[in-house]
Amino acid sequence: MDVNVRIFLFLVFATIVSCDRVTSPDSDSYYVDPNRYSQNQHVQEVLRKYSQDPRYNSNNPLPQDILDKLSSTPDPRYGVGTGNYAGSSYRPNRPYPPSGRVDIANVDRYGNSQFGTNNDRNRQRYDVYPEPGRGDPPRQYFENDPQYSLREDEIIKILAQIDISASQQCNINVRAQWDFETNVNDVNQIRALEQQLAYSEFQRRVHNIVDKIDKWDIRDRDLLRQLRYLATVGPSVLPPDQLNRYNRLINDMLAIYNTATVCDQEDPLKCGLRLEDLNLIMARSRDWDELQHVWIEWHRKTGQKIKELYVQLVDLSNYAAQLNNFTDTSEYWMFPFETYDFRNEMEKAWNQIKPLYEQLHAYVRRKLRDLYGPEKISREAPLPAHILGNMWGQSWENILDITIPYPGKNFLDVTPEMLKQGYTPEAMYRVAEEFFVSMNMSAMPPEFWSKSVFEEVPGRPVICQPSAWDFCNGIDYRIKMCTHVTMKDFITVHHEMAHIQYFLNYKKLPKVFRDGANPGFHEAISEAISLSVSNPKHMQTLGLVLTSVDDIPHNINFLFHLAMDKLTFLPFSLALDMWRWDIFNGYTRKERYNCHWWDLRERLSGVKPPVLRSETDFDPGSKYHVPANIPYIG
Q1: Whether 538 is catalytic
Q2: Residue 494 CB-half CA count within 13 A
Q3: What is the pLDDT of residue 530?
Q4: Which of 483, 493, 486, 513 is nearest to 444 (CA)?
Q5: Contacts of 53 by beta carbon, 8 Å cutoff, 6+ apart
Q6: Per-residue DSSP letters for 529-545?
Q7: I want to staple 384 with a disulfide (CB 3.0 to 4.6 A). Which of 15, 76, 139, 610 is the partner?
Q8: pTM of the model
């Protein structure tokens, strides 16, 4: 492997490098990497505590009466005997103390109470990393709360039981989802939905238990962090009728999105063009009017129709966030990143990259101006969104034929050589495994090879979206992918196996910690691997490139291709989530939804709509993640 690639990967994986596989004498499928965390003393301490401390031994369970007491206590946030929150006196952001009294110790130097609308006691109590200068409210105000003071060893026993149950419930749910995605039929779909609902109900019950544990006297930082994460279950915390309404709103919006069709510009009677057809037009057509027609119609058939539903979803999503002890959904989405200044950090990071993006933007604008003419593209104006090769202007790689710096210096494609050398889908995974083992990481466990789906199964419909699966039992890890012998899929195989490597590295942690360091970290690791594998020198090392392509034109084209895909994606991602943060926190009212969207797109991306827009339009709603209410960053 190229030395530069090794150095790069070492830096990326400095905190998660594992040692060689050691087979347990008890089981052929059990993998132990004893020195996996030797470079991270904090994680080493966590592992020691959870594996050696006798208090964590599940053979010494907490008495059932304590669990029963915690789980059966009425939740004060819901009205007595009803699932409707409308009549409840619970107000997540009510000022504290409730009596209006202010303790002199909790008044700042300007005479203002430190516990205003957004500084409620729930945030004070639950924050994993308290903000500097924010003290705790007087404890006597909460003596009547349905909270239970437990010793730390009792809490640890509760968490040990929850951890076992959570792993079991997760395994049941993941197996049901796997069965559906690898054999799509009505029976499997119903079972997958049932298990998803059951898992959501389990999470809600855990939330109710953990939420009633008094956390005032807990000094163990990791213990407090576990409780905070277990108490955060997202929309599952909603009362049943409101959860049904939440799911119905999302399903209704996605139904509009997934069934939208557009009529052909030249043939108005041809009206069955779906998104996949439109994506091909956006990628291949260079006809200004055709692209504009497709862009306008898709946004009209999707965004416009879901706006009122989305307004309702915002209110309900914010209520769910408040039940999870957050001020609004934007705070809930940022919580896993564990920083109080996440938005500013994102903008600061973008401002460091922005000069490079501006150079790329100016170069692409000149190339497009040469193609479409100065009457359509000004020398200094933002780029029209419909001519960038993508419905949302988030990736520009489809216009490489117009913009490539060195035409004729073809992109590296080792597909013909792979076919010539007799590569098969399984061989691609074996080569990927060797790549990771060469960096002293673990080989894939036996279950991976026996249970993964590498190719389409004859006579059985499979959802072919590549994905890596953790079955929550520390043994079973799989990849599902309809793999073809191509360079693109070869890189994707490495990408997905990087997820498996990450799964293997944190498999001994409690269930609540078995996830990426933050919502974006899993993909960051896998993308780093993808970039390294696609390097021409690495392909030469594998014997898939027989002649040197290490010259300036090829290298510039290769890097330019990456920039047109990866670099252009960053400002779009940032705009999409910043737009939603501003809606959730009340900064942007529904009367300015669309205007604010294009303000952000122009400021961050230098992109504008192809035609004038108004608040009748709802252009961000034409992107899947908006009706699905899924964060884009991470």
Answers
A1: no
A2: 22
A3: 94
A4: 493
A5: 156
A6: HHHHHT-HHHHHHTTS-
A7: 610
A8: 0.75
Which two tokens mark 40? 């991270």
- Pull the structure tokens for residue 110: 């300007």
CA distance 328 to 581: 9
Asked if 295 and 562 touch (Cβ cutoff 8 Å), the reply is: no
Show Cβ contacts of residue 473 under 8 Å, excluding neighbours closer than 6 positions.
167, 171
- C-alpha neighbours within 13 Å on the C-beta side of residue 532: 27
| 522, 502 contact by CB (below 8 A) | yes
Structure tokens at 361: 């933007």
Identify the CA nearest to 14 among candidates 568, 538, 525, 622.
525
* pLDDT (tens digit per residue) in 139-153: 333 344 455 667 888
Please give the helix or strand (H or E) that residue 593 lies within, else none. helix 593-605
Judge whether 496 counts as a catalytic residue.
Answer: yes
Q: Is 456 annotated as a binding residue?
A: no
Sign of CA dihedral 358, 360, 362, 368: negative
Of residues 484, 538, 554, 625, which has the active-site annotation? 625
- Whether pLDDT at 313 is above 60: yes
When mean pLDDT is compared across 15-29, 155-169, 376-390, 393-407, the lowest value belongs to 15-29
CA distances for 274 relative to 38, 158, 288, 456, angstroms: 52, 50, 20, 24
Res 194 pLDDT > 60: yes
Separation of alpha carbons 171 and 191, rounded Å: 14
φ/ψ of 113, rounded to 5, equals: -65, 140
Structure tokens at 530: 């993808």
Closest CA to 382 of 401, 400, 398, 369: 369
Mean per-residue pLDDT for 234-242?
A: 90
User: Which residues lie closer than 8 Å to 607 by C-beta, 6 or more apart?
Assistant: 382, 383, 384, 385, 388, 393, 601
Kindly tell me the burial class for residue 315, based on how many C-beta atoms sit within 10 Å of its own C-beta (0-12, 13-18, 19 or more): exposed
- Give the pLDDT confidence of 516-525 residue by residue, as tens digits: 998 889 999 9
* Bond before 130 cis per omega within 30 degrees: no
DSSP letters, 467-480, are EEEE-SSSS-EEEE
| pLDDT digit string, tens, across residues 434-447 | 999 999 999 999 99
- What was the pLDDT predicted at 408? 82
Rounded mean pLDDT of 537-545? 91
Which residue is listed with tokens 């933002």?
Answer: 382
499 is in an annotated binding site: yes
Structure tokens at 462: 């499979």
pLDDT tens column, 128-177? 333 333 333 333 333 444 556 678 888 999 999 999 999 999 999 999 99
**How many residues are given for the chain?**
634
User: Which one of 181, 299, 496, 522 is the catalytic residue?
Assistant: 496
Ranges 95-104, 406-415, 482-491, 614-623: which has the least confidence: 95-104
The 10 Å Cβ neighbour count of residue 395 is 18
